[in-house]
Automatic annotation (TrEMBL):
<keyword id="KW-0407">Ion channel</keyword>
<dbReference type="Pfam" id="PF00864">
    <property type="entry name" value="P2X_receptor"/>
</dbReference>
<keyword id="KW-0675">Receptor</keyword>
<comment type="subunit">
    <text>Functional P2XRs are organized as homomeric and heteromeric trimers.</text>
</comment>
<keyword id="KW-1015">Disulfide bond</keyword>
<keyword id="KW-0067">ATP-binding</keyword>
<dbReference type="GO" id="GO:0070588">
    <property type="term" value="P:calcium ion transmembrane transport"/>
</dbReference>
<feature type="binding site">
    <location>
        <begin position="311"/>
        <end position="313"/>
    </location>
    <ligand>
        <name>ATP</name>
    </ligand>
</feature>
<protein>
    <recommendedName>
        <fullName>P2X purinoceptor</fullName>
    </recommendedName>
</protein>
<feature type="transmembrane region" description="Helical">
    <location>
        <begin position="357"/>
        <end position="379"/>
    </location>
</feature>
<keyword id="KW-1003">Cell membrane</keyword>
<keyword id="KW-1071">Ligand-gated ion channel</keyword>
<dbReference type="InterPro" id="IPR027309">
    <property type="entry name" value="P2X_extracellular_dom_sf"/>
</dbReference>
<feature type="disulfide bond">
    <location>
        <begin position="279"/>
        <end position="288"/>
    </location>
</feature>
<dbReference type="InterPro" id="IPR053792">
    <property type="entry name" value="P2X_RECEPTOR_CS"/>
</dbReference>
<dbReference type="GO" id="GO:0005886">
    <property type="term" value="C:plasma membrane"/>
</dbReference>
<dbReference type="InterPro" id="IPR059116">
    <property type="entry name" value="P2X_receptor"/>
</dbReference>
Length: 402
């Protein structure tokens, strides 16, 4: 008896597998006269159509082919600053003094790379240094009591020179190891506040940006065709009154990043100048214009005051009448401006247009699937709808020929 039941089950499984393999499904149109189902269907269709037209076609411009930007940037800073200190006396600073290194054109670069320039705003000066012997700056490693504490020839990674092996007086109460170095040694400390080159806030920079979209053979620059020489001599960028002027006042750039120039100038910092070109080349070329934005890039966390800002050292060398070389060491603080160019261009192309139309039609086809799922799962008459939607017809063979 059990063998008969097992055999029947095997036959049932075989029949089910055969039906699954050899069944053929053909679409059947079932018209459901229901306000709820009809409303769901139309609302879903409207959402899909709104997505295709509003987002894909209008917002994302899915009918366009796109190209990334190639860009070249050059800068030219102008301005005069005056200082009057005990170390330097009355002095005039021009562009050759406060732009370090000297301005040179940048190469062509791809999207999101940088071109930079540095403006000196503050400094610590150590004058009349010569290569001779002097006492090292006091520190845990350099303080000594006798010559035995100073190893001749030792060069510490944080020292200022090569030790001679002697322990000498740094001042009447402290002894340190003697070094062969540029003496007198720099007395490092806090930079002057207010900054020495406070006038730097009124310096201006001309930014010349040439861009190219190679796929569309489109070239342009941020000095627009309507800008002439007389206008360029007097204009300064202002977002509301002069948004097309490529000359920027340094103070305005820093303030647009919601920073105070004089505070930032004490220890220095890093500013980002973002130039964005988003061009629709189906429109006139005059509509393709740059958009400028400014933001501070370095960390300005007020709770972390270790090594703030941006600084480096450089020296100016001289030779006296006796042919002895001397130098003036400068620890310079300032603001580095990184110019970053972004953007892309789009232009009509048949291939992306057809691809997005096809994707839209496929999404419309999903509306029927969604509505069928709702009808057969959540409606009160779902069993009745299922009976009407699915019909099963057995194979009675082909129609005989007369």
């Amino acid at each position: 008896m059990s063998g008969t039941m097992t055999h029947a089950k095997d036959n049932s499984c075989c029949v089910s597998i055969c039906h699954l393999f050899f069944d053929y499904s053909t679409p059947k149109i079932l018209v459901i006269r229901s306000k709820k189902v009809g409303a769901i269907n139309r609302i879903t269709q409207a959402l899909v159509i709104a997505y295709i037209i509003g987002y894909v076609c209008v917002w994302e411009k899915g009918y366009q082919d796109t190209d990334s930007i190639l860009s070249s940037v050059t800068t030219k800073v102008k301005g005069i600053a005056v200082t009057n200190t005990s170390e330097l006396g009355l002095r005039i600073w021009d562009v050759a003094d406060y732009i370090i290194p000297p301005q040179v054109p940048s190469r062509y670069f791809e999207e999101e790379e940088e071109s930079s320039f540095f403006v000196l705003t503050n400094l610590i000066v150590t004058q009349n240094q010569t290569q001779t012997h002097c006492a090292e700056i006091p520190s845990v490693a350099s303080i000594c009591s006798s010559d035995k504490n100073c190893k001749a020839g030792f060069r510490g990674p944080r020292g200022n020179g090569v030790r001679t092996g002697r322990c000498v007086n740094f001042n009447p109460t402290v002894k340190t190891c003697e070094v062969l170095a540029w003496c007198p040694l720099e007395r490092d400390g806090e930079p002057p506040n207010p900054p020495m080159l406070a006038d730097a806030e009124n310096f201006t920079v001309l930014v010349k940006n040439n861009i190219r979209f190679p796929k569309f053979n489109f070239n342009k620059r941020n000095i627009l065709p309507q800008i002439n020489s007389s206008y360029l001599k007097h204009c300064v960028f202002n977002r509301s009154t002069d948004p097309e002027c490529p000359i920027f006042r340094l103070k305005d750039m820093v303030e647009e990043a919601e920073e105070d120039f004089q505070t930032m100038a004490v220890h220095g910092g890093v500013m980002g100048v973002q130039i964005r070109w988003d061009c629709d080349l189906d429109m006139p070329g005059s509509w393709c214009v740059p958009r400028y934005n400014f933001r501070r890039l370095d960390n300005k966390d007020p709770t972390n005051t270790v090594s703030p800002g941006y600084n480096f050292r450089f020296a100016k060398y001289y030779k006296e009448g006796d042919n002895e070389e001397t130098r003036t060491l400068i620890k310079g603080y300032g603001i580095r401006f990184d110019i970053m160019v972004f953007g892309q261009a789009g232009k009509f192309d048949i291939v992306p247009t057809l691809l997005n139309i096809g994707a839209g039609l496929a999404l419309l086809g999903l509306v029927t699937v969604v509505c069928d799922w709702i009808v057969l799962t959540f409606m009160t008459k779902r069993n009745h709808y299922r009976e009407q939607k699915y019909s099963y017809v057995d194979d009675f063979g082909l129609i005989p020929q007369e």
